What we know:
Elements: H1 6-12, E1 19-23, H2 24-34, E2 39-42, H3 49-57, H4 59-65, E3 68-71, H5 75-81, H6 84-87, E4 92-98, H7 100-115, E5 121-127, H8 141-147, E6 150-152, H9 158-175, E7 179-184, H10 185-188, E8 191-195, H11 226-249, E9 253-255, E10 262-267, H12 271-280, E11 293-297, E12 299-301, H13 305-312, E13 317-321, H14 328-339, E14 345-347, H15 360-374, H16 386-401, H17 418-432, E15 437-439, E16 457-458, H18 464-467, H19 469-474, E17 480-484, H20 485-503, E18 507-513, H21 531-537, H22 548-556, E19 560-565, H23 569-581, E20 587-593, H24 597-613, E21 618-625, H25 635-640, E22 645-648, E23 659-662, H26 671-678, E24 685-692, H27 696-715
Parallel strand pairs: 2-3, 2-4, 4-5, 5-7, 6-7, 10-11, 10-13, 13-14, 15-16, 15-17, 17-18, 18-20, 19-20
Antiparallel strand pairs: 1-8, 6-12, 9-11, 21-24, 22-23
Amino acid sequence: MERSFKKEIEMLKLKEGEIFEGEGILAVTKALLQSGVSYVGGYQGSPVSNLLDVMVQAKEYMQELGVHVEACANESSAAAMLGASINYKARGAVTWKSIVGTNVASDALSHLSSVGVKGGAVIIIGEDYGEGSSIIQERTHSVALKSTIWLLDPKPNLENIVNCVESAFELSELSNAPVMIQMRIRACHLQGRFKAKDNISPSISSIKKTSKVADHNYDLIAHPPSTYLQEKLKYEERIIKARQFIIDKGINEIIKGEMQEVAIIVQGGLYNNLICSLEAMTLSDSFGNTKVSILVLNAVHPLIPEEIISFGKDFNAILIVEEGQPPYIEQEIGLLFHQRAISTKVIGKGYLPMAGEYTSEIIFKGVRDFIVEFAKDFKDLSNTDYISEVADIRDKAKNLLASEIPPRPPGFCTGCPERPFFSALKMIEKDIGKIHISTDIGCHSFATFAPFSFGQSILGYGMSLAASAGVQSFSEKRPIAIMGDGGFWHNGLLSGVASRLLNGGDGILIVLQNGYTAATGTQDLISTPDRNYRKLANSKSATENDQKIQNALKGLGVKWLKTVHTYNVGKVKETLLEAFNSSFKGLKVIVAEGECQLERQRRLRPFRAEKLRMKKRFKRIRFGVDEETCTGDHSCIRLSGCPTLTLKPSSDPLKVDPVAHITDGCVGCGLCGENAIEATLCPSFWKAEIISNPNKWDLFVNWFRSRILRLFIKYA
C-alpha cells in the first residue's frame, strides 16, 4: 500500500516515561511491543486494520526487536499461527475483524483452546456490533463461551487498554489459555495518552532463536483421548487460575456510589456511554464520580462469582448493561443469584433493547426507567428531558438544512475500476434479461446499491461461487458469481473454484482484480503488483501484466479463461455475452483487471508533482458534458453512478430538466465516454487533454487545431 505510517512507527519507538499520544488501536500495537511479543499475524478488517498495517511498514524496526510480522491469507491461518505458543514460551498475538473473521478462525481457535498454551496467546478482536460496519450483527462473546477462551472488554481509555493487553499475556500464561481482547470501533479510534514503557525484545525471537525442539507430548495435541483430559483441565484448573488472576490483578473495577437500592454492572467497552447517560441525569460527573455503584467488567469471561455476589447482594435490583443478544452476562448472573438464593433482582433486557448499538441516548432511557422504578428517592428522574433535548437538536439541524438529508448509501470511489464492469453487466441485461448474481464481500458489494442493484446473496468472503452451486443446478440461465482478488485468495480458490471443478458444474465466475484488498485499506495480496513495477507503470494500470490469478486457475484445471481490462466496456460486454452463450459445459472464468484507483492516484500524485517541479511535460485527461447536447434524461448517471457525474440546472430556459455535469473530482478514467458509446447514449461527453509544460509539437498541434476551428466557425 502507498499510504505512509511514518509518524505511527515513530510512536511505537517511544521509551520509558515518554508520553504516547494517539488512537486506541495504535496504543494496542505499542502495548504488544512493551509485552515482549515474539510474533504477530492477522487479517485486515475494520476497525483493527491499522495494527497490522503499521507493523508491516515498520519491518526494519520489527527486525531490530526480533518480532516476526505476518500478513496472513485469512483469519484461519492467523489463528493457526498461535500454535507456536502451544509448545514454546513465545508470546504471540493475532488480529482480525469480528464476528465474520472469528467465524472463519473458529476451527483453529477451538483446537488451540483445547490443548492450551505455554506462551501468551492474545487475539485482538475488532468488535463492531451495532456500529453499522459489520455485515452481520453477532458478538464474539458466544465464541469465547463455547471454546473457553477468556474475553477482555477494556474500558475505553488508553491507559486501561494498554494495561489490559499487558495483563492478557500474563493471564494467558498463568491459566494456559488463549485470551481475546475485544476492541470496538470507538475504542480503536479513541484519542488519548499514556506513559510509555520500553519495548521488550522477546526471549524467543527471529534474533534469539532456539536450538531445542519441543518434546513430543501427545497431551498437547487436540486428538482423542487427549481431548477428554483437555476438556477436564479447562474447568478444573484453567478457569480457576484465570479467575484468581483477574481478582489479584484487579482487572474489574468497582465504583462506589451513595444509592442504596440499585446498582449497575456494565461491560467495560460500554463504560463511557454509561457515564455520559448518568451525567445527563446529574448522577455522575465527567470523571466517573457517580451516585450509582457500578461494577465495570473489563473481563466478561470468565465472570468472578464471589466478586459479583459481594458487589450486588445488598441491592434490591441490579441493571446489566450488555449489548446484543442472547444476554449471556445477564443470564449467568441471574442464575448465580438464583443458585445462591440471593433476592437481588437481576434485570437487563427488560429496560434495554435486545439489539443495536448502546449509545448514551439508548442507555439513558433504560437506566432512567430502571432507577425510577427501583430507587424510591429518585422518582423525579422521570422528568429528565435529555431525550427531548436531543430530539430538539435534531429538529433544529433539519430546519437549518432546510430539507431532509437524502440517504447516502456507500458506493464506489471515483474512477473505481469495478464500476465499468457493472455498467457492462447492466447493459447486457437488455439482451439476456435478469441474471442471478451471487455477490461477495469487498468493494464490489457496493454494486448491491443503486444505481446497479445487483446481487441475490452474500454468504462470506470468497464464498460467492460456492453460493451459486445450488442455483446452477436448476437455473436455465447460467448464474454469475463475483469476487475480488482479496476474496479469491482468502477462500474463493478452494471453497469455490476447486469445489466446482471437482463436481463438474457449469456457471460463470468473475474475479475483479484490482491488485489489493482495497475495501479495508488497500493491503497487499499475492497478486499485488511488485513495488518496482508499480513505479514503472506510472499512469497505467499496474495490474495489467500480473498473471498470478490466471496461473492459479490454470493450475487447478480451468479450461475456459478470459482476461479483460475493466475500463474497456465494449470488450467486457462481448466477453460476458460469450460466457453466457458458450457451448462449453463447465466453469467459465473472466478475470476483469483494473488497478484500484485510490492506489493509482496515490502513486500518481508524487509522480505528477515531480514532473511539474522539474518543468517536464505532463498530460492529464479530463471529461466534461456539453450542456447544449445533454438531453437531461440522466441515463449516463444510471449506468455509472460516478460521484463526479452529477446534475446542475440548465442555463437554457427552455430546458426544464437539469443537465449532467462532471465535477473537478474527475480522475479521467473515461467510463462516462465508454458508456455513452456502448449504450448509444447522447454524444454529450467531451474529452480534453490538459498538458503542463507543453513541447513544440504540442504547441504546433494546438495552433493548428485552433486555426481549423476558427475557419470552421467562419464558414459554418
